[in-house]
């Protein structure tokens, strides 16, 4: 009998999604990938990673309207609780976070049932940093979302 334990993961991300108030960007070419806690983030044609700083704390993000792809390497649990540290620039937002699930009723990609299962993060209109959480009870993490485990879709 196997025990399915919840795996709690944390990532410090600066989601530079809500305008540029209070944000400063590093003046270097975007990296192909970056690690934020247990999460590996990736640049793509849909969003180049940017190192950003808010109130002396740095994190990773993409420009508003971009997509941020991510993987959870070495995670072998289907029950995931992901905590993200987010700076929103004082505005509220809803961030779509489709992920690779084992839910075969999800047919966004007929070749990979379960891929692109919808989930969301609600960001409050606070200054500085805030912690937001996602919980997935059916995570598959087989990188079937454009070659990754999940995607943050910034408004």
Summary tags:
mainly beta; single chain; 155 residues; 3-stranded mixed β-sheet
Q: What would you note in describing this structure?
A:
This protein is 0% helix and 39% strand. By secondary structure, the protein is an all-beta fold. It has strands spanning 6-12, 24-25, 33-36, 39-42, 50-54, 57-61, 67-71, 79-87, 93-96, 120-123, 129-136, 150-153. The strands form 4 sheets. The chain has a 4-stranded antiparallel beta sheet with strand order 3-4-7-12, with no helix packed on it. It starts with 5 loop residues before the first strand and ends with a strand. Strand 3 and strand 4 form a beta hairpin.
Radius of gyration: 15 Å
For the biggest sheet, the summary is:
4 strands, antiparallel
Structural class based on helices, strands and sheet pairing: mainly beta
Proportion of residues in β-strands? 35-45%
Helicity level: under 10%
Fold blueprint:
Layout: E1 6-12, E2 24-25, E3 33-36, E4 39-42, E5 50-54, E6 57-61, E7 67-71, E8 79-87, E9 93-96, E10 120-123, E11 129-136, E12 150-153
Parallel strand pairs: 1-8
Antiparallel strand pairs: 2-5, 3-4, 4-7, 5-6, 7-12, 8-11, 9-10
